[in-house]
Amino acid sequence: MGRKMKITQLFLTCISTCVFAGMAHADNSSGAASVMDPVEAMELVMAEPLTYVGQFIPTSSISGIPSCLFRNAKVTVLYTYCRKSEAPAYGLIVYSNTVERGHISFYAEGDGRPVSELHRSEYLKHMWRLLSRFNASGYRAGMTAKEFASYHETERTYYDSGCHVWQSYSQPVEAKCLSAHQAQEPEWVKVSLNFWNDPNQAWYDVQTYMRSLIKSNSAIR
Q: Distance from the CA of 173 to the CA of which of 107, 134, 162, 216 falls in 20 to 30 A?
């Protein structure tokens, strides 16, 4: 199986296990918090310099490529497929350090070139996805990479359908918020669907910034 096929399989496995088939419950005791939209997430990533926390290989990884953890005062950022040589798939998860705001996942693939070299129009539509949801029980800001790796296993197997934008091959684009997030749907979908169709400059700036952090870090191969 080729490297790109392995990476694609990993993401599709994550979608089926992380979103639709978990057992643990989301950690949102107040029930009143709203999850992040993609524009807010990009702003928070770029609000302050990110510090490298560490890296780990998820036990579910098919590619065997580590994920790297970064943090500033606003957010904790998980960069998947974290290596000096950029993978053809781009996965980024932004966790608000205001923990009840949850996290938002971004995933994109194009024609085999690194996503940071592509414009939105060059993404594969069915592999360009946004998913925003609450955290699994046990998440806290400030975790070490080792602690986060343990939490990450919990997150893979919990259920919170959240808010999402994606397209399945020839099907229409699906943009909606489900269950506990339905009250947020009008505004989240408006912002996020616009972003999915035409990301703002911050989307591209964050990719460039993340690659610069990785390339300059001697702990990352």
A: 134
